[in-house]
Amino acid sequence: MRTSRLTEAEIIVALMEIQRAQKPVLIHCWHGSDRTGVVVAAYRIVFENWTIENAIAEFRQKEYGYHESWYPHLVNILENLDVEAIKSTMDYIP
Question: What is the residue extent of each domain of the chain?
């Protein structure tokens, strides 16, 4: 996944891998902040039923290191997640 070109489709693939993986799962990228953060935020929204607003607020916490000036589109992806479609695609069972 390239952070500058990251898409919702790639996030969905990551979520599917997490859903299928043996637990626990470690999610990490080069800095552990941008790709990792957006996938964790999406996970919280889809699997833990967090609000999009709360997941974005956590993603933006300074201590997690999100480079918003470099990758502002990551917040846009989260803001526009079609959560119900993602859950349907993944045969999500709450």
Answer: 3-18+26-89
